[in-house]
Write a structure and sequence with these properties.
The protein is of the alpha/beta class. The chain has three domains: about 100 residues, NAD(P)-binding Rossmann-like Domain (Rossmann fold); about 35 residues, 2-Layer Sandwich (Double Stranded RNA Binding Domain), CATH 3.30.160; about 60 residues. Helices cover about 45% and strands about 15% of the residues. The strands form two sheets. A five-stranded parallel β-sheet has the order 3-2-1-4-5, with helices on both faces. Strands 6-7 form a two-stranded antiparallel sheet. α6 runs antiparallel to α8. The protein is elongated, with a radius of gyration of 22 Å.
Length: about 220
């Protein structure tokens, strides 16, 4: 089966997580990081979820799933439940046209979640189409060991440059970004050579374009 890969804008979107254990906590953390409004349906909560409920970062319904819980949801994750309950959730999701992920049950899923390697704004998603999540995680570990933090820094620089250039002429902007992507920018960032980065920016984006002008400080470490 072939899946359509996509990145979703969940800012302000209502999302439901059914289950309150450790797996549910990981789902909730990822949804909150993406800016979603999260409701958790579960009789009990893991400690980290309890903390989020106490601070009103999530809404908690302290009970088992019941039909209607997906009303108004944009996306849902089922991280707990017996077979009959999971089947009922999948039926409701299909009827309500809510994208649903059921942990370890691709046949019930409207979407599956890839393994992800992050370097700042850069995200590399790895999937085996549900065939083997363990293999996807192994590949993600290999990528994590080789993908340097300079990729995230490069994305921050080019993102700031895109904002600075504004709408402008599309072809001109395209040439600038293509040139910087092909230039030894990543090598300079890997070496933390700010002077070389500034020279590349001035060469391709204009004499007044520097890291300082873009608000980028290479002394500030990039999160892995």
């Amino acid at each position: 089966m072939q899946y359509y890969p996509a990145y979703l804008d969940l800012r302000g979107r209502p999302c439901i997580v059914i289950g309150g254990g450790e797996i549910a906590a990981r789902k909730v953390a990822a949804l909150l990081e993406a800016g979603a409004r999260v409701t958790v349906v579960s009789p009990t909560l893991a400690e980290e979820l309890r903390g989020l409920a106490d601070t009103h970062e999530i809404v908690h319904h302290a009970r088992a799933y019941r039909r209607g819980d997906l009303d108004g949801a944009w996306l849902a994750c089922a991280a707990a439940g017996d077979e009959s309950q999971l089947a009922a959730i999948a039926v409701e999701a299909e009827e309500a046209r809510v994208f649903l992920n059921v942990v370890d049950q691709p046949r019930r899923c409207g979407f599956i979640v890839p393994a992800v390697v992050r370097r700042g704004p850069v995200q590399v998603a790895v999937s085996t189409g549900g065939a083997s999540p363990a293999l996807a995680k192994r590949l993600a570990r290999d990528l994590d060991a080789t993908l340097g933090v300079e990729w995230g820094t490069a994305a921050r620089i080019l993102g700031a440059l895109r904002t600075r250039l504004g709408a402008g002429d599309a072809s001109t902007r395209g040439r600038i970004f293509a040139a910087l992507a092909d230039a030894p920018l990543l090598d300079a960032l890997r070496a933390r050579d700010a002077a070389r980065v500034d020279a590349l920016l001035r060469e391709h984006a204009g004499t007044r374009t520097t890291l300082a002008e873009l608000g980028i400080d290479l002394a500030v470490g990039e999160d892995r």
